[in-house]
Amino acid sequence: MLAGLDVPQPHLLLPDPAVLLADPRLAAALHGRGAVIGPAVPPALAAQSLRWARLVRAALPEAPQRPVDCRERYADLLLLTDPVLVRLIAERRLAPLAPLTPKQRDRLAATLLAWLQTGRGTAPEVAARLGIHPQTARQRLHRVHQLFGSALASPDTRLELEIALRATPTAPTTPNPTRPPGG
Q1: Is 32 exposed, middle or buried (0-12, 13-18, 19+ CB in 10 A)?
Q2: What would the pLDDT profile of 112-168 be if each residue is shown by its tens digit?
Q3: Whole-model pTM?
């Protein structure tokens, strides 16, 4: 175990985090400290794991009370590693939302993200995810399809749209708040 707890960016390197974090004493010591646990990697990649943990921690809106496990945030880490590229994807793919008011943009972005994350779900599925009435979801989905048209049929476009929506503040209802800095 290596520790640097008295430095500006404290860290603790553990040989087997899953086992050691099961110890209630260590869990109690980390509670309320904003801990983020990088993925377990071979020793040669320890610095990379620390970098990933710091990226996730910097992107969180506030210090977590309980440790955050980076293994549950691999997709977010991917988004965080190249915020400039993610921003370019967002500008390109979310351009149809640009002429809308911020309120309209946020609602349609959230609807589009819910639709993508439900596997191109039905209006009732999207409504349940967003906590809105199915008819409202139906109307928003109709508008999304008007704005994005045939582009929504492309798996590559849908992937880029989800990347853009997960990484930008125009999707406030995304279940995962991690966003690239300045994204």
Answers
A1: exposed
A2: 999 999 999 999 999 999 999 999 999 999 999 999 999 999 999 999 999 999 987
A3: 0.68
DSSP string, the chain: -EEETTSSS-EEE-S-HHHHTTSHHHHHHHTTTT-EEPPP--GGGHHHHHHHHHHHHHHSSS--SSPEEGGGGHHHHHHHH-HHHHHHHHHHHTGGGTTS-HHHHHHHHHHHHHHHHTTS--HHHHHHHHTS-HHHHHHHHHHHHHHHGGGGG-HHHHHHHHHHHHHSTT-TT-S-----TT-
Residues in the chain: 183
